[in-house]
Amino acid sequence: MADGKELGTVVSTIDGPSTERFSFVLNSKQVRRGQFVACEGEQGMLIGHVIDITRANRYFERAESVAEYEKTAPLSANFPVTDWEYTVANARALGVFKNRHILRSTFPAAPGSKVQAVEASVLKDFLGFVDDGLAIGEVENHKLPATLDLTRLLQKHLAILAMSGAGKSYLASVLMEELLDRKLEHGRIAIVVIDPHGEYLGFKSGEYANRTTVFEGRKVKIAFHKVSPHLLFEFMTQLTITQKREVENALYELRREAKNKSQTYGLDDLISHIQGAEIKENVKGPLLSWLSQLRKKRIFSTSDYPRMKQLAQPGKLSVIDLSEIDSNKRKQMLVSYFARRLLKMRKRGKVPPFLLIIEEAHNFAPEKAQKEAAISRGIITTIAREGRKFGASLCLISQRPVHLSTTALSQCNSNIILRVTNPFDIDHIGESCEGIDKGMLGAITTLRVGEALVVGEAVNHPVFVKIRRRKSRKSSKGESLSSMAR
């Protein structure tokens, strides 16, 4: 099951070999940090992951001796230094692969065992890749496509985390391409993207144009009669208990009248009803003021736009472009409403299974913000907790995970992490994402653009991946400063 290419020999050290680690002296310079290796043991094939590589030479062990000899001539001129150089790789024992099953390592590798490269088919099964998976790139140090299982990656939600400019949106575009290219027999889901900066508008032209619909944020509308009192109060957090009671009474009357006349009602009808009602002035005045401010948001209408069946279609992409909206509250109100409607309709089976991708998720589900500044946080955390049962999946994209709701992030059982350097974000990732050790956290800071760590439910073991080239067109809003200045 190893590919027969011998890489080295297991050696005894002070700490091992143990059931957790083993070291081997290299006979090939092709071994690299992050590479997967294998050696035969009593239990079967032991798979290891190279975590560090060190080089040594007895002739250069004593600094004072090297300094003295080098005064007259290079040490290599007088001694056979190359004959005494050796390289040792330290590997973490990941598990035993036997009969296509992964077993826990309960016995160490034997000193003297030969370490070999892992056969691609073995590594594919060991990591949990599948033939009909989402091909996001190639495994680092191996010519093996990283084909992630759709269910394992998305059903229990996904978080894409990275600093600005590290390739979050690029990776998300690759992921969307894979979902759009997916064959019917392999299962297709609907893709809905909340796009605050217009980074995915390139999908509306080129190869994916006939499978993409972009809804301009300024034209997106909420059917007021479908807004529950509870949600309306989330839009107006300043209301007192008395004011809420008056609004509930007014909405009850409006619903009853609308039902009798087979018509709908809007925000203006609610305002008119409040104006004509016998309410104390100290209650009515502020209430009308809040309702007037809500009307200025210009997001309410007699019907939803887009309708849910327009928004969520299997094998198609819907982008809600919020780049022309300045008000953060208006953005959150739209996200809160449509996320609620999507989940509700999915529970009833009226829309297909969907993936809701939220860019700049820390702005829509902030960790420490008060309710009035976190209108959409509640429904995002609700989908994070309950969505997997109904085929309602989340993909949260953030460049500041430390500011993202811990509840929402912790419910994302799969994570794809690109370069992160902020120490607070790194600590937060370490606390929120299972399966990441200190070595991996350290490696995250050194990743180049387009390199990512996949960890969690999506894979059997954390793996570094080089993201493939995208096929979709890049949005003009994502151009570099120099390009925009030409």
Please name the CATH architecture of the largest domain: 3-Layer(aba) Sandwich
Biggest pleated sheet: 11 strands, mixed
- The tally of beta strands, per DSSP, is 20
Please report the distance between the alpha carbons of the first and last residues: 55 Å
Major sheet strand order = 9-8-20-19-18-10-17-16-11-15-12
- In total, how many domains does the architecture comprise? 3
CATH class of the largest domain: Alpha Beta
| Assembly state (oligomeric) | single chain
Query: pLDDT below 50 for ≥5 consecutive residues: which ranges?
Result: none
Strand content: 15-25%
What is the fold named in CATH at topology level of the largest domain?
Answer: Rossmann fold
Shape: elongated
How much helix is in the residues?
Answer: 25-40%
Radius of gyration: 29 Å
The computed structural class is: alpha/beta
- Averaged pLDDT: 90
CATH H-level homologous superfamily name of the largest domain? P-loop containing nucleotide triphosphate hydrolases
